[in-house]
Write a structure and sequence with these properties.
The chain has seven helices and two strands, in the order ααββααααα. By secondary structure, the protein is mainly α. Strands 1-2 form a two-stranded antiparallel ribbon. A hairpin with a 5-residue loop joins strand 1 and strand 2.
């Protein structure tokens, strides 16, 4: 939503939460992380809220995912996988596949910006999205993050 409304002023958390069907408290935590990383800025006052600090074409999905969720793929970070490839000869081929998948995902996410996903077909601005129960989208993964992160 912030990308769609870039250069149109700040948007209230309540409005973002409603349109994106997210709990306000959860969204506040995400926006605080994005603010600390200087991707968004908060605006105080009657017309206050949040807005992007950079154009959507300059914000890559990889930045957001690394900030919110850590490594880009569910297989761990690249250095960890390379270490496993070097040390575990028995499972080397499997770890190499995981590294290849991770690298392919990273390449896509590093070359995809908010503008790219904003310009692809989707819900018209101002229309409330319906929740999909079956299959999560890439955007929902970016916004919601990994619920098991930090557990271990």
């Amino acid at each position: 939503m912030l990308a769609r409304h870039y250069n149109q002023g700040a948007i209230r958390i309540r409005d973002i939460a409603y349109e994106e069907t997210l709990p306000e408290k959860f969204l506040e935590l995400i926006l605080l992380e994005l603010k600390n990383a200087r991707m968004v800025e908060s605006v105080r006052g009657a017309k206050g809220g949040y807005q992007l600090r950079r154009p959507p074409s300059e914000i890559h999905l990889s930045e957001i995912i690394r900030l919110i969720d850590g490594p880009l793929a569910p297989f761990g970070d690249a250095d960890q996988l390379r270490t496993l490839i070097d040390r575990d000869a028995e499972h080397r081929a499997l770890y190499q596949v995981f590294l290849d998948v991770r690298d392919a995902a990273a390449k896509i996410l590093e070359h995809t910006t908010l503008a790219d996903i904003m310009n692809s077909k989707g819900v018209e601005p101002g229309k409330r999205r319906k929740k999909k129960q079956d299959s999560p989208s890439v955007l929902s993964m970016v916004v919601h993050g990994n619920p098991t992160r930090g557990q271990g």
